[in-house]
């Protein structure tokens, strides 16, 4: 017998045994052109019906058979299905009969499935069996009756009984040759839903509402409906005599009972633990301790119509399985409690609750056993020790002799795994990428020591906060803690059981003697690079990553390093696991739209990030070894809204996420108020925005919106990203234009307007005229020209003519207003401070002194400017990136010039940054002149009337006046900025008006940032007045606790909702006892988020229309060209020496 024949014989033998097949449902046919015996030759089947073999179906000369007949024939012929049938005749008309066909699926995991695979591989590849199976099955399911009532039928039946038992009923004319279309996605979902509920055939009707919601909204809804932790199932467990080493069910039962009280006590934790925190802690303990398995997400369970055993349907491949394909869920997950709800305390409570547990030999790793040759019989002591350490018995809990404890601690249990040296000792290796090591790479055994130590990895700037939290929450002496960071001095030994070090001890027993090792990310990086470091040779009991959203990038340093570590349990801690999966929960009676402007949520991007955390950090199979499956089996079905995909995704999230619904958190946070502050742009604000729009408009018109000269061409992505960044900066202030470029803009407009006939439409001509008018307005304003020349923000001061002539950069003579930059105004204040006690015999003597000091100032100022310009033009690339906003491109084939924007920010000012109001006497370098006895007849400086009226930036003016008022009200404030030049302008003005502030920015090292944060929190605002923390919003997602602040300002609207939520939760969190006010600054008639939202994920701008909408901002040429303070601010006062 040939191989084909023998294989096919096995296929027939297996498929003829209905006990191995899965009942699916039935189909009703009528008008069959044959006698009963012709279908399958009338052979009886094991279910009491007859086998169906459509090869016996005679062909009809006039018409083809119905397509469903052909589909059933395909499934029968190639071994996907087996069918039986029964003919039913009606009492009313015996000539009319119904042929009911039972469908039995051959499961892909049937005993002997390999014969089916081998047989199909012998057939022609042109049959495309797998693809056609999916197509035919999708069409067939639309007409299958899955109900129990439809599974049976009598030989003779009345029409009445048939219709009553089969409502609704669908009968197919076997000779109707109509073509059946592929069902739509919604129809397929409806069919599988019928299948899951055991329903008869029904007609799908389109629904409106939630079913038609967008992909992103459906993903958000699933995430936001993750159920709260619930320990009620453990309430009936025994809690008598529960100890730290009792079975986990008993410990969970105690937690469940305790969490019904107002406060929960955790061994070793001295802080108040809220019931919701205890429930989260309990769920984390359960997921760490109980082996959990789940169906792979692409499988859904189904019941056959005859109530036989449950089977499983693969939503992706459409295969039918008899047995479940299970995955083991990770021991750990994502602690995703909302920001400010005490995730740090929950983690510390979990560590205390499991203090004595030791990591165990894993069952899912390929282990290698060392061959040990014994020269003598092992002692009873050694055998006992080996048994204790290899079985991970929690010996630390028991009262053992000191010698025994020392013996156990110095000889920890271990196991061996094979590893690739290149992968494990090179932190630059990309995840899952194996080097081409078949020829030259070295492999070996890695010995992993089991321990009771939890390794906590935190961002550098959170290192001090974590160590402070451990001191605050944990009872002294309960846990032994090692804090490791690069900035720690070796001699800094800490106190008690908390020790500080620059590195992890090289001796493994010494390293794992600690209950907690707190490791900064930079210290982890150094430890990974050091092959002598023991952290790669320890099988940690638990690995906790604070700010776990840093794990969503495979290429991030933190993600790569953490992947190299072995741990039994893994937790990513983050209130925002991805940027889009964020919901900022506040009080339920707070009717507040926390994110003032909605932005489009990119669900696919966020799901990909979440998949990276699950596969790369949690190492959850099958996504860890087959990362593409996440996209194929989770993202793609969700995107297509495949039936069951939302349920499986929800089940997956529920299995790894720990978070509460807001209604289940019995903690009342103070009320908060979030408002959008709409400010009318100043003359300079409006002029800058209009100039940007003019550049774009002229470029669009002259390039005719095509080709590489068009700014929105895909080849100009980099320049567009830079342009968008500069437009956003210009909403605060901008000094990046050059007069020559603006004049060029005028010339290009003139040339284009001379050649408008038949070339430009009326809208384009209007754009050219508006652009020219804007450029001329700028060129005719001397204050604007000066600010662009020296890159200074203008300050408008009254009653200061003497200082204007010496330190000023311009004036409005008709109004008696002097114009100053911040350095010039600070020089005036410095002059006043050093000469406040001096008297002069006459005005000329004073002027001479003033001119002498100002001359020295300007000499230094222009020298510094020359140095900055020298640095600026030192390299060719720097020339390309200089402050010019325009690059003029001339087409050889055109009679006019084309415009291409090249906006870049002005050179960053390198000035001293003040962290609080300085002591004038400490900064005094020069000895003051001899103080003369005051004489009323001698000339004095009249400065009481010198006042600061306003600035050329409306946002700066508003912020400064608000912070000054908060200082008087003893309120601590946070100002979040995105661009450092905004922070520089703001801090300069705060120094001028004597408002105290502390800076928290990128250019400050993490240790200083941490110190600044402590200084801000400990600052005595009640006796010293309020203070402001000027903070880069990039640091808002780092879990900082800044409850000392009760007022928050956003300089610009925040595009990403997650970042805004994180920033707000720095202050509005547990421990806050004041109402929190949040203010987001925007310019009137400038929809900043809409403009900046024109960039896609890669930063490409999709159209120019949104960016041109702000061209018509009103320019108040005749009125005040500055943004005025509510009340002028006195700059100098003869009665205040500390000015």
UniProtKB/TrEMBL annotation:
Annotated ranges, domain Helicase ATP-binding: 453-595
Domain spans labelled Helicase C-terminal: 955-1114
Residues making up the signal peptide according to the UniProt record: none
TM spans (from-to): none
Domain of life: Eukaryota
GO cellular component: nucleus
UniProt record, GO biological process: DNA repair
CDD domains per record: DEXDc_SHPRH-like, SF2_C_SNF
MF terms (GO), sorted A to Z: ATP binding; ATP-dependent activity, acting on DNA; hydrolase activity
Keywords for the protein's UniProt record, in alphabetical order: ATP-binding, Hydrolase, Nucleotide-binding
Name of the protein in its database record: DNA repair protein RAD5
Organism: Candida viswanathii
Gene that this sequence comes from: RAD5_0
